[in-house]
HAT C-terminal dimerisation domain-containing protein
Amino acid sequence: MRREERNITRIRSDLGEHNDDDNPVPTKRHRNVDQQKRVSALETCDIILSQAEKRFRFTGHLAAAKLFRVSSFQEYCNRFPEKDFAATVNTYSKVNKSTLKIELEVLFSRVDLRAAEAAATLLQLFLRNNMQETFHECVRLLSISVTIPMSTVESERCFSTLNQIKTFLRNAMSQP
């Protein structure tokens, strides 16, 4: 996402620096048309940047999902995922930080819980074995995590559209 933002920002700055010193002086009509194209292109870049910021701002739920990646429990048991934990606590401020950390440390160390295949399976395991009281904060986070879509289809579609717009802008600016 950051790479795409940098690309659009670079295109926008190129539009601002666009200079036709090597071309003869255009007529007043051509200057107006070129100016209108440039203004439209700048507005389009601004809209893309603001929409990208608004749509992709909330990604904290991905850190919570990483905490419950069962395949990483062994690694997390040896080295606690502080970065993902901090991001999760920042995203979900109602979570009791110290309780969650203790529950996660216990969760990562329990070999019998590594049999779960995914976060949803882990949640079912907690509920089936009446472990809601023991892992209260984990169950809350898992309940949230399994209901939030983790699919990238929409973002991939947005990037595809973004590339089409960038191509259009480049082509529009290269035409005399």
